[in-house]
Request: fold
Amino acid sequence: MRKLVSFMHVSLDGFVGGPQGEMDWIIVNEDMFSLAGEQTDRSDTALYGRLTYQMMNSYWPTAADKPNASKHDKQHSEWYNKVAKVVLSKTMKGTTLHNTTVISDNITSEITRLKEMPGKEIVIFGSPSASHSLMADDLIDDFWLFINPVLLGQGIPLFKGLKNRKKLKLVTSQTFASGVVCVHYERG
Reply:
């Protein structure tokens, strides 16, 4: 069975976005982009919520074509353009998009079916609302959390709507010079 892997930036006090969803507190650098690139190399499907998909799709298809595009922009743009994309959205129901499937109903059974199909890992970047739904139904297998050295006090929580206790096992951790700590957990 394919793994569903979540990549998420989180504040030290457990928020993935500010009260209005703002992400101006997130620290990223080339080392983190390299780590993310290793993950995308192990995946052939990207899963998003509607808002994150719209944000990603407005940038990544042509990011490599921009003047002064970084190495990361070129690599991620190439990956984004070739992988299958899955969007969880009720408002995009019936929408037809290139290399993209929209799932609006029966999310648990549809994601379970997707995980049972042959292929590489499925990766979800951000997408807090979609992640909450997937976590509630115990569909996420691995968590890569980039813990940023900031306290937001309020905002969108990382974990929400869990039905049961989830035991996780630490696989690896890495500290970046920026103070961000990346921890990789898998289901225990």
About this structure: The longest strand covers residues 4-11. Residues 57 and 119 are 23 Å apart (CA to CA).
